[in-house]
Each structure stands twice: as structure tokens, then as C-alpha cells.
Amino acid sequence: MLELNHIRKDYKSGDMTVNALKDINLRFRDSEFVSILGPSGCGKTTTLNIIGGLDKYTDGDLKINGVSTKDYKDRDWDGYRNNSIGFVFQSYNLIPHQSILANVELALTLSGVSKQERRLRAKEALEKVGLGNQIHKRPNQLSGGQMQRVAIARAIVNNPDILLADEPTGALDTETSVQIMEILKEISKDRLIIMVTHNPELAKQYSTRIVRLLDGNIMDDSNPYTYEEAHKDAQAKRDKAKKEKDELKKASRKEKKAKKNKTHMSFLTALSLSFNNLMTKKTRTLLTAFAGSIGIIGIALIMSISNGVQLYIDRVQRETLASYPIQLQAETVDVSSMISTMMGQSDTDDNGSGEERDANKIYSYNILSDMLNTMVAKVTKNNLKEFKSYIESGDSDIQDYVQDIQYIYNVPINIYSSDTSKEVTQLNPNNMLSSFYGGQSMTGTDGSSNTMFSMGGTQTWTQLLGNQEVLDSQYDVVAGKWPENYNEVVLAVNENNEIDDYTLYALGLRDMDEFNKLYKAIMAGEEFETENTSYTYDEVLAKTYKLVFPTDYYKKNSDTNLWEDMSEDTDYMTNLVNNAEEIKIVGIIKPSEDAVNSSLNNNIGYTKELMEHIINKVNDSDIVKEQLANPEVDVFTGLKFKTADEPITMDDVNAYIATLPSEEAMATRAMISTMPEDQVIENFSKVLKAKENNASFEGNKTKLGVADLSSPSGIDIYATGFEAKKNIENIIKDYNKAQTDAGKEDNEISYTDYVGIIMSSVTTIINAISYVLIAFVAISLVVSSIMIGIITYISVLERTKEIGVLRSIGASKKDVSRIFNAETLIEGFVSGTLGILITLLLCIPANAIIYNVTTISNVAKLPVNGAIILIIISMVLTFIAGLVPAKMAAKKDPVVALRSE
Ligand code: ADP
Ligand code: MG
After folding, report:
1. For residue 140, is pLDDT > 80?
2. In whole angstroms, what is the distance from residue 177 CA to residue 87 CA?
3. Which is it for strands 475-480 and 554-556: parallel, antiparallel or unpaired?
């Protein structure tokens, strides 16, 4: 039973208060057909809206089954509307972008009925109103009468207790009106129908009770429901309920329980509602999405390019640093501090004198003494043994920042041609060009690194980086494989599959005789044509060399028990080389196409295992063992080494003169006989000191190529990038500090940071560019968000009516905002995806242009996760931008929304 007690409704608009309902007292039977008649503006619609819970009464009380609604919360009203009320409007208020079936189903989706049952019940309701065969049509494909029947089907699909119809036939012709009234009458058999109408005839003909309103007051009621009658009905109802309850005890109560007073629209429903809405406005949706996607396109393009550039920069950094490692040397001059001293500005404010300076005069400032001081002071010895053990101890995380760490030893790699049929030919260290350099061997034993060879261009045998990943990224193997053994090496050709002729000679691929001819011809000022030659991969891969250890040149003379240098003895050398270990070229490598800076070119690359093998072999040889066992005695002469601070005596001078060729010796003796002794010693001390250097324990060790694996003469640290390089520098700094703190200043490491001097600004530039890009990104994001917000706002305005309808069938405020949120999410997804697709297309010409300008290929490349993130960002941003309009939609007064056109 429904009861209106002293209901009053005031509308406030500005200063005016409209007294729409003044004092309405009505009681309704559970099933009757009530018509409300009255002139326009008398408060009929307001009454219906209050009964339907769409509008709130100002004063009085609405009692539902005897329960006051004064304390009803929003969700109580939503549930009441969804479960107990069905609305039918004069203007049908169907949702235009949904099918007939979907329109009817909508009320059921709110009450959480399963999809199958929903469909079934909606069809049933449509059949009831005679539209069972039109369920897939859209509202605009139906006539007015048909649309009103859909509206009735929608109103009754939930099986409500009360059906409220506001001028349902107001827009229909008489014939259709009658049809509608017949349907309503049929429905009214088991429920309450309250209908507002302007047509007294229809009211009289179909309804069981007519209520007349005038100016917010009830004027007349043809069949009032008296208190006594209501009381009696209530008693009967209670009795009946009791009976039913007893019966129900046996049966299940599921049915009753299902009719919960809670409504809730699933997000999926919201999505499909919004999706259908967007689908009806495809063009606009696409245009909006496109407009929204422009921001995303901008970002995605910037992302693609900066990603590519970053990859390129990383690569350049890696490869640059692969050529320019941080070099720690056993003995070092700190060049950078020397440079900074030289470039150091004179500090005029602090010129020491503090005197005023004359603007028209030139003053001096002094750097020379500083420079010399640093030069003297900065020659430092590095304890690399200590540092190596520190690196290898794993106490630092230096390994995270390096591509490779190479240890360099002062040990020559003596390589000979395998072919000794004509003569013994030494290929490495190579002294082919020695004549050009004043008889000095250009290619020292190792100890220098790639930097040196790239400057000298004469170092043929180079140690490969130990990091296979880096090698793989820098080189393609064109034939064979990478070395897997100490006696395997690779040949690096340039990108055009060429090797320069110098290397060809050094590799023994060309005959040295030919070079000698060339050399002679050029010296004589003649023309000499060197023809171009080519080699098959197999020819190169068939090439082998012989490895001779530095100790192999010496043979023990059984008579003197001293070691003799046999390197000038042809038979000995031939025999030695023939029996030496073989080194094979197992692969040919070439800089990969996108390598920026390859560290090897025209070189033989060997593995660090080769160097270790040589060191171990040398240390294992008899001569080295003998020398190490007797550090005081020279194994070559059997004499004691001179210690540095021992003064030179006349005996030393005489001994030295004895070693000179006889004529020279005689002349020298004649000369010194006229001089006082101390003058002689003074004159010879320099020569003798230099001589001594060779004949020292250390000198012999160097001569024999003795090295301690734990104590390298150099450490080359190849950083993975500039950031990593900074970290490595910090690790060295920390190491130095730890050593100082431990009182071991001698262990501090100093080095020259060549790359740092050249490239320090690069990182700063990269960072600056990144910030500029980020600023652009931020701007385009803001712009696209604002646009989506505006468009959602327009959508809210457009769909006001729909909001009203949804509210009238029980959608809560949350449901409404959910619909618009779903719409913005869809819009965000579409614009994000569209943006990504367009970006992928734009990347093609962008790459072509970049390639044309820079020859760097495939720079613009959108990372997959970047694309996904951008779509998500687009969705999140449009969602946020749509929050305010969605909230506005939710806040809309359903009554006002329904009134809007
Ligand atoms: P009708 O009987 O024609 O359906 P209504 O119930 O729609 O009349 O309106 C009753 C009175 O209340 C009218 O004077 C109308 O102008 C006023 N009214 C209705 N809704 C509002 C509103 N939202 N704000 C202000 N006045 C309103
Ligand atoms: Mg009205």
C-alpha cells in the first residue's frame, strides 16, 4: 500500500519559490488503475515523480507498505525505483542507440539478473505488449505507439508493484491510444497503475479511480481508499501472508531473496552502453579520437626517436669506450692535471699582492713553475697488483659497469711465418717499417692498447675484448668462427672486405721481398706499381703461424754454463720455428653494418688466453727459473748485477772499455790516460748507468718476457657507457680513499682520463635534450587531456535525457558516472591505439629522412612496452579529464534531466 501524507513540494528558482504541491493526501490500493486529471502546471508530473522516488518531497511523508521514507538514503531510493516502480513517459524516453531488446533489458541489468534470464524476461515483456517480433530494431525505426509499448515493456519487465505513466498517450492518435490503454488495463489487474492524462474520456473508460488536481491540491477523488478499507485490506493481507509463509516454509525462499533492494550496474554494462553510444556517432568518435591522439602521436614519435637515439647514443658510448678505455698504467703521468694547470686561469682577485691594477697595463701571471711541479710530482707509480686483486675480490660492483677489463703485460708475442723454406720470417712484433723510424722498432712489445695502435697504425696483433656480447654487436663473422682456444685467432677486415697491404705483409699473406723491392724503388725515386690482390676465405682460414716464446731464443752453453742468445743463428732459428706451437686463423670478422666504432680493423685478434699461455710458458722455462732463483747473478754473464747506489769505479770503466771493439777501445784508453780519474768516472757514469739498466735483474726479466699474471703493467677498463664510466671513476676514488684511510697512500691509483677530457660535455647535452623532449611531451599531454575533457562534457550534455531515464529505472549516481567513465576509457583507448598506429606509420618516413641525413638506419622505433604504456596513459588521462563531466552527469537531478530536450 502506498500512502501520501500531507505531501508538499516547493521548487526554488532564484528568489522565487514555486509551491507545486500544497497538501496532497492520497492512499492507493495495491492494485487499481488511477487516473490523475488536471490542467497543465497543476502538479501532476510532480506528484508522479515524488511517488516514483525521482523527486524528493519538501514536507510530509510518503509511506511504502506502512514504512516512512523520511530516512531513505540515495541507494534506498535507487533500489525502490528499480524494484518497485516502472515509469512510462509521454515522450517514451527510449535510449536511441540501444536496440529495443537492450532498452528493455537495461532495467534488469541494474538489478543484477543473469544475462540469459534477462533476455528471456525482456522478450516476454515485449511479447506482452505485442512487439515480440521487433526486438532487434532501434527505437527510431518504430512508430510512436510502438515506442510507447517498448516503454511499457521496459516498465514492467522488472515486475514492479507500481507503474507510473505520465501522459502515455499524449503524443498518440486515438486508435493507438486505445491500444496502449488496453495494455495498461491488462497490466493493472495485479498492480497499481497511476496514470496522468489530459483525456477524461480515456480516464473514465479505463481507470477505476479518477483523482483531480488543481494548483497543487486534490480537488476530487472518485474512489478514495478509506482508512477503514485500507485497514481491512491490511488485515487480510497479513492473514494471507501468514498462510503463504506457512506454505513457503516447505518451498525454497530463493524467489523472495532475489528481490533485494540493491541495484548495481556492472562495469561491463556501462562499457557496452557507452560503446553503443559511441558507435552511433562513429564519425565524431573517430574525429575526437584522432584529435586526442595527436598528443599521443607527438609523444610516441618523440619516444620512438629518443628511444632510437638513446640506443644509438648508448651504442656510440659503448663502442667509443670500447676504443677508449680507462687506462691504468703501472707508471703514469697525470696529463689531465697538467692540462688543467696549463689551462688554469690566473686568479686576478687573488694575485697575492692585492694591489690595484691599472686598466691600461698588461700583467704577467705565472704557470711555468706550476707546470713543471705537476710534471715532476705527477709521475706516479700505480700498484696495479693490489688493484687487480681488489677488482677480482668482488668487493666492488665494478663488474656491473664494464664491458670488459683487460690486463696488459709487457710480454712480446713473437709470431713467425710457418713457412721457413726460404728463410725465417718474424711477422710480429713487426719491424718492417723500422727503417723509416730511425732503426727503432715502432711496435713495441705490447703494453700499449688500441689507442696506440690506432695512432701508429702498425700494431697487427691485438687482444680481443673478453665480452662476447660486445663483440657480437660490433662484428659479423663472415667466415669461420670466434676463437675458442688460446691458439686460435681471428682476422678483422674492414667493412668493404679489405685488408691494407701493410697488414698483408705483416700477416705473411704478401711476400716481404715484394715490399723490399717497393721500398728500394721508392728510395731511388722510381715508380713502383703494387698490384691489387685478393684472397678467398679458405686461403685466409688456412693460414697458420708459429709462436715463439721470448725465452726460446736462448740456449745454455754447456761449456760456460751461461745462456747464449741464438736469435742470429739461422739453423737454430729454423729449427726453433719449425718446432714451435702453431697459431691458426679460425675466423674472419668484419664490422657489423650498424657498428659505430669498431675497435678492431685490419688486425689479428687474439684472446687473453694466448697472453696467459705465453706468460705461463715463459715463467716455466729453465732460464727464467734460473734467473729468478739467483736474483743477484746475471744468467747471461754469470756476473753480479750492480745495485743502483753503488758508486762507479775505475774497474767498471775498464771493464766497459774491454767490451768495445778493439780499435775503439784502444783510442778510448789513449784518451782517458790523459785525464784525472774522477773526471773519467764522471764522463763515463752516464753511459755506464744506462748500460747497467740493461744488465739488471729487472732488465733481464723484461728481456725474457717475464711477467706476473697478478701484477699487470696496465689495466684497461672498458665502461659500458658514460654513466657507467662515472661509476667506475667513483669506485676508483673510493678505493683510493680506502687505501689512504688504511695508511697505504702508495696503493692509490692515478690515471689519465682522455675520454673524460674530450667527451665530458656529451652527457650534459644528452640530458638537456631529454629535458626539452619531456617538456614537449608534457605540453601535448595536457592539451589532449583538456580536449577529451571538453568532449566528454559535450557528451554529458547530449545524453542528459538518457541520464534521466537511467535514473528513473533505478540507476544510481555511481552507475551514471560509471557510464561516462566507461565512455572516456573507450575514447582514451581508441585515441591511444589510433595514435600508436599513426606513429608506426609515421616512423617509416621519419626513418627514411633520418637515414638520408645521418645514414643511421632505423632510429625511430617505438618500443612495445612504450606503446602499451602510452595507450594506458591515454586512457588514464582521458579518464581523469572525464571525471569532472562524469561527476556532473551523476549529480544531475533526474527530474530536470528528464524534462530536458
Ligand atoms: P503538470 O501538472 O503540468 O505536470 P508539473 O508537476 O510539471 O505540472 O509542475 C507543477 C508546477 O511546478 C509548475 O508550476 C511548474 O512550473 C513547477 N515546476 C515543476 N518542476 C519545476 C522545477 N524543476 N523548478 C521549478 N519549478 C518547477
Ligand atoms: Mg506534466
Report:
1. yes
2. 17
3. unpaired
Contact present, 158 and 108 (Cβ < 8 Å): yes
Going by CA atoms, what residue is nearest to atom 14 of ligand 1? 41
CA–centroid distance for 752 within its chain: 34
> 3-state class of 165 per DSSP?
strand
Three-state SS for 682-736 is: HHHHHHHHHHHHHCCHHHHHHHCCCCECCECCEEEEEECCHHHHHHHHHHHHHHH
The string of pLDDT tens digits covering residues 98-123 is: 899 989 988 787 777 788 888 999 99
Sequence letter at residue 773 = L
Residue 436 one-letter amino acid? F
Greatest distance between any 2 Cα atoms in the chain: 160
Q: Which domains does the chain have, with CATH numbers?
A: 30-53+84-231 (3.40.50.300), 267-315+764-899 (no CATH), 412-607 (no CATH)
Q: Return d(Cα 814, Cα 826) in angstroms, integer.
A: 18
CA within 13 Å, CB half, 120: 5
Cell 778510448 maps to which residue?
668
Give the tens place of pLDDT for each residue, 807-845: 888 888 888 888 888 888 888 899 899 999 999 999 999
Task: Give the pTM.
Answer: 0.58
Report the 3 state secondary structure along 611-658. Answer: HHHHHHHHHCCHHHHHHHHCCCECCCCCCECCCCCCCCCHHHHHHHHH
Q: What is the grid cell recorded at 324?
A: 677508449
Q: How many whole angstroms from its chain centre is CA 195?
A: 64
How far is the first Cα of the chain from the last one, in angstroms, to the nearest whole number? 34
| Neighbouring-strand partners of residue 194 | 34, 164
Ligand nearest to the CA of 898: 1
Q: Is there an atom of ligand 1 within 6 Å of 46 CB? A: yes
Strand 326-329: give its sheet, edge to edge.
Answer: 326-329, 714-719, 402-408
Look at residues 796, 819, 792 and name the one whose alpha carbon lies nearest to residue 266: 819
Q: Is 16 in the pocket of ligand 1 (CB under 6 A)?
A: no
Any atom of ligand 1 within 6 Å of the Cβ of 897: no
For residues 774 and 768, what is the distance between their CA atoms, to the nearest angstrom? Answer: 10
Which residue is closest in CA terms to ligand 1's atom 22?
11
